[in-house]
Structure formats: C-alpha cells, structure tokens
Amino acid sequence: MAAGDVQAAHDAYEESLALARALLAQSPGDLGATQNVTFALNFVGDAALVAGDLNAASAAFQESLDINERLLKQHPESPELQREVSYCLNKIGQTAMTAGDLKAAEKAYKQSLTIDRRLYKQNPESPGALRDLSVTYLKIGDTAALRGRLKRAQRAYEESLILHRRLLEQSPESAVALRDVSISLNNIGDLAMEAGDFQRARAAYQESLNLRERVLRMHPQSAEALRDVAYNLVMLGDTAMAAGDVEGAQESYQRSLEVAQHLLRQTPTSVDALRDVVISLNKVGDAARALNDVEGALAVYQQALDIIRRLLQQNPESLYLQHDLALALMRTGGCALILGNIPRGEADLREAVTILKLLTRTAPDVALYADQLKRLEQALADLPG
Question: Using CA atoms, how far apart are residues 1 and 9, in angstroms rounded to an integer?
C-alpha cells in the first residue's frame, strides 16, 4: 500500500473511532456501541501497524483488549467476546513480534492459545474455532523458531498442520484452506532445512508449491498467490543448493524472479513486491556465485542492494529492511573481496556489522542477528592486513 493510501486509511479509521466514541458516550452501557469502539480501535491499530507506528498500534490493540476483557467479565459465557479477546491478544503479539520483543509476543500468543483451545473444545465442528486455533499454533511456532527453540516450534507447526489439513478436508476447494496448509508445510520445511534434512524439506516445500499453484490457477491475478508461488520456488531452490544441485537451484531461482517481476509490473509501488524481487535477485546471485560467476553475481546483488536502500528511505525504522540491507551488504562485500576490490569489500562488510549491532540491541531475543554478527566480525578479523 502506498504511503498516501496508508495515511488516508488511518485518517478514515480515526474518524470512525471518534464517531464510535461519541455514540458510546450517548449510550454508555450499550454492548453494541462498546463493541463498535473496539472494532474501530482494531482498525486504527492495523493501519498504524502497516505504517510502522508500533507504539500507536500497541496502544490501540491494548485499549481494545482492555474493553473486551471488561465486557467478557460481564458476559463470561460469550464465545464472541472470548474470540475478540483472543484476536486482540494475537494483534498485541504481532505488534510485539514486529518490534522484536519475542518474549512479549510469546506471552500474548500463549494467552490467545488458552482461549482458542477452550473455544475449540466447546465447538469442535466450528471452522472458525478450528482456524483460530491453527493460526495461533503457527504464531507460537514462529516465536519459538526465532528464539532458537526448534523442538517447541516443530510441535507447534505439526499441531497447526493437522488442524489445517482438517479444514481443507472440510473445504477442499477453499483457497484460504489450501494456503493455510501450505504455510504449515513451509514452516515444517524450514525446520527440516535447519536440521539438515534436505529431503524432508524438499518434500514439504514441493507439496506446498503444488497447493499454491492450485490457488494461483483459481485466482491468476492474485498478488498474494503470485507471491506465494515465488516464495516456494525460492525455497525449492534453497533445498537444491543445499544438496549440491546448483543448476537445479538456479532454475528454481530464475523462475521465482520471473514471477516476482511479473507481480511488480502489476503493482509497481508495492513494498512487498519489491522485496520479493530483491529476494529472488539475491538467490539468482547466490547461484551465479556458486558457479564461479562472481562478476555476474555482484551485478545482480547490486540491483538488490539499490532496491533495499530505496525501500529503507521510505521506512527507515523497519527491522526487516535493516536486516535485508545487512545481508545484501554481506553479499556485495564478499564478491568485492573475491574480485580484489578490498576497499569496497571491507566498507560493505563493516556497514553490515554496524547494522547487525543495532539489530541485536533493538531485538536481543532474535538469535539470528547475534549469530550473524559473530560470524561476520570473525570474517573481518580474519582478513589479511
């Protein structure tokens, strides 16, 4: 979403919130009027989250949670209010996760999980209760994986996959159900990659890609479906690369780049589409470097680096984009050193170190940042001279 669109949405939601508050002031005990305030607060929080204003998002979701918890005390048997409390906790967890506060995110998601389990137990045939529970398991797995707790993440992802498959059995032509299964499969593939089980990872990613291509055939103009297919092609390329099949990896990466560029032509101002192109460019560069085409790799990496710097100018507080920049600099710096351009190589790597130090201070629970910083500092120390 373009910056102007984000601001316009935020302004509209703030207007809606002001109106909801005014109506509640006229009927202070009315349940519907009170719930309308919480709905408006959630929209304001979503807009703030998209805009990167995490403090505003957190405040909106927390106020919505406080109101819903108060209502739930008055109506303790209401499934609707229980679900609203769970939703707010999920949003608080998402905001904390975006800010790099994984402990706070995990706490919120666990509270949400307790409610979702209770609702599912009360109504096991409800698709809504089933999906809420499966999504919360996914998020708990995500936080555990980022904190390096891989066994806990594996259990959460497997629970999520079981529930998502159940939903797909109920609605075999549902694009949402197909995508949900694919997400769980990808997460299981990610953990298999981490464990070095490339065969299991490839099987998970391939099944996921098959599902995502089905969704794309249903909705050929869908930006989300195109992004999903591009992502899975990258992951299949990664498994091929890890298994030593560089040519196979290069083919998957090139296909991914073509899909990502197709999407970018459809949505030229989309930050997500630009990031997808960056990811695919980097992967194409990785394959070129593995085939000893270092100059070709550097040229592709430079394209990705230029896009990331442009994106960061638009959203300088984004931890994800800062991490993208650090990784891009590590790639360009490494190629420059191989080609004998020592000043360029050292400058890029030192800039990456500076960014990773900032990320480790901002998000100390993200083990990946600290690990990458340690390895990069050691690489710089090992340089001659």
Answer: 10
Q: Which residues of 236-256 are buried (b: 16+ CB within 10 A; e: fewer)?
A: bbbbbbeeeebebbbbbbbbb
Q: Residue-wise pLDDT tens for the chain (385 aa)?
A: 455 566 787 789 999 999 999 999 999 889 999 999 999 999 999 999 988 899 999 999 999 999 999 999 999 999 999 999 999 999 999 999 999 899 999 999 999 999 999 999 999 888 899 999 999 999 999 999 988 899 999 999 999 999 999 999 999 999 999 999 999 999 999 999 989 999 999 999 999 999 999 999 999 999 999 999 999 999 999 999 999 999 999 999 999 999 999 999 999 988 889 989 999 999 999 999 999 999 999 999 999 999 999 999 988 988 989 999 999 999 999 999 999 999 999 999 999 999 999 999 998 888 899 999 999 999 999 888 6
- Would you state the structure tokens that stand for residue 293, as one six-digit string? 């085409």
pTM of model > 0.90: no
8 Å CB contact between 337 and 327: no
